[in-house]
Design brief:
Helix content: under 10%
Structural class: mainly beta
Number of helices: 1
Largest sheet: 5 strands, antiparallel
Shape: globular
CATH topology of the domain at 22-96: SH3 type barrels
CATH architecture of the domain at 22-96: Roll
Number of strands: 5
CATH class of the domain at 22-96: Mainly Beta
Order of helices and strands: HEEEEE
Mean pLDDT: 86
Distance between the termini: 44 Å
Length: 118
């Protein structure tokens, strides 16, 4: 068996995160350590991309804070990522929506994917 796959299986986290993709609005519950204290901070924004595979998979989330765009890259299998909630499922055509950085105002909205009940 491939040596890298053996190492990945040992370090893989037990977290089962929901399936999300670029364009979705998610809330990431992230553990922050400050000295001896530990707290959970929420980071809510739009997923710009998912990249990598296995234990090295990451995703980028962008939010607006006081009129300034803030992006953060989260490792998917990090023990500090406590939970990921999907708030909205976006309808985009691309896997990496970097054009979203240039958009402002009404044009910066992403259409929500509507699921039809059978």
């Amino acid at each position: 068996m491939d040596l890298m796959k053996v190492v990945e299986e040992q370090f893989k986290s037990e977290h089962k995160h929901p399936a999300f993709k670029a364009g979705d609005t998610v809330t990431v519950h992230y553990k922050i350590k400050e000295g001896s204290k530990e707290r959970i901070q929420n980071f809510r924004g739009v997923v710009l991309q998912r990249r990598g595979q296995g234990i090295a998979e990451t995703f980028t989330v962008r939010k607006m804070a006081s009129g300034v765009g803030v992006e953060r890259i989260f490792p998917l299998n990090s023990p500090f990522v406590e939970q990921i909630d999907i708030n909205k499922s976006g309808n985009v055509r691309r896997a990496r929506i970097f054009y979203f950085r240039k958009l402002t105002g009404k044009s910066a909205r992403i259409k929500e994917k509507i699921y039809k009940k059978a």
